[in-house]
Amino acid sequence: MKEFKNKTAVITGAANGFGFEVAKECARREMKVVMADIDGEDLKKSSQVVKDLGAEVLAVEMDTSVFEEMEDLAKKALDAFGSVDLLFNNAGVVTSGSIWEMPLKDWEWTMGVNVWGMMYGLRVFVPIMLKQKTPCHIVNVSSVAGLLTTPGMPAYHTTKFAVVGMTEAANYQLQAMNANIKMSLYCPGFVQTDLHNCDKRRPERFAIDDDPYYQSASYKTGLAKAKHVITTGIPINSVAQSVFTGIEEEQFYILTHPQYNPVIGLRVKSMLEGKNPSAELFRR
């Protein structure tokens, strides 16, 4: 996809972080922008910023983990602008803690947004794009956490590895069809986003309650670590350009943190050499 002017972008998780940055870049490229997010208050503010950049904007408050709401998003996008040319499948959340301590609702929430929501985006928008028969592009947001593992975030790693597998497989299927849709897989490391504050955007069915876990040292330590690594990550202002360069060059893997490449390579090398994973790597 090389031409962007007057094309339509749909962006999930658009009120903050990566989604907001991409929405602003879409406006600069004279695209029509559909901004979707569960946080209605932040969405209102962010969509006004994008409008002020000159874009036609449709703001849709919705929950990507609910399939019917993803269908409704597509309907509203088509009703407003007539086509969908770019999907930035981005909405995500993070939880931390051991598998045996985390409440099941935290797993359900993380899987619902990071995996099911990503799949819903593909399931709803790919048929629309195929029917259009025009050059289209989908960017699925995973993470370097989908390419390597660490001790602290098993649920997050699980979902991000799933996104990598899902996107690679979908891309192969589209290639086999000689489809008009290209795909990219965005796998950033730590970036200065608002991800560590995602608890405030939990739907009621996943709300923090009186479960003792939420008063535990494990939960509080996880929150503190998430805040530290995100707030000390790279500035977010380079994100949109990396994404659009990937789209323009039809680049599948968009990796923005080369410092992790040796660790990713070591993981694969250890597998091929039959070596066991070792926690010593994280004690150095």
TrEMBL record:
Entry keyword set: Oxidoreductase
Family, per entry: Belongs to the short-chain dehydrogenases/reductases (SDR) family.
Bilayer-spanning residue ranges: none
Name recorded for this polypeptide: SDR family NAD(P)-dependent oxidoreductase
PANTHER family reported in the protein's UniProt record: PKSB, RETINOL DEHYDROGENASE 10
GO MF term set: oxidoreductase activity, acting on the CH-OH group of donors, NAD or NADP as acceptor
Family matches, as InterPro entries: NAD(P)-bd_dom_sf, SDR_fam
A family per Pfam: adh_short
Lineage summary: Bacteria, Bacillati, Bacillota, Clostridia, Eubacteriales
